[in-house]
Amino acid sequence: MTDRLKEDQPIFLQIAEMIETSIIDGELTAHTKIPSTNEFSKHYQINPATAAKGINLLVDQSIIYKKRGVGMFVSEEATQIVLAKRKQRFYEQFVKPMLQEANRIEFNSTQLIAWIKEEMENDNKSN
C-alpha cells in the first residue's frame, strides 16, 4: 500500500486501483487475502464504507471474491481481468488521442509506427 492518497481522484477508486496494481505487479496472487476494509480505513484515515466501496467495485468485476467470515481474496482470473481493463484504458486514454492528433496534423502513420518501435526497442535495451 502506498502511504498517501491523491486529491484529484475519488478515494474508493484509488483503493481499487491500488489493489489492481498490486495484482498485476505480482504482489497479490490468486487466492491471496487482501487487507480488510478496516485495515484500509485505519491506514488511510478514511471511512470504512469508502474502502468497502472500492473493494466491492472489484468484487463486482470478479477480481476479488468474498469468503464469508474469513475475508476478501484475489480471484484466479484477476490478473487477466485487470490487464484487459488496463489495456483498454491505455488505448482510450493514450492511443486514441495520439492517433486523433496524428490525423489532425497529417502525420504519416509509417513514421509514427517507426517511432513507437524505436522507443520500445530502446526501452527494452535499457531494462
UniProtKB/TrEMBL annotation:
Region forming the signal peptide: none
Stored PANTHER family: GNTR-FAMILY TRANSCRIPTIONAL REGULATOR, HTH-TYPE TRANSCRIPTIONAL REPRESSOR YTRA
Domain spans labelled HTH gntR-type: 9-77
Coiled coil: none
Protein name: GntR family transcriptional regulator
UniProt keyword Transcription regulation present: yes
SUPFAM superfamilies documented for this protein: Winged helix' DNA-binding domain
Keywords assigned: DNA-binding, Transcription, Transcription regulation
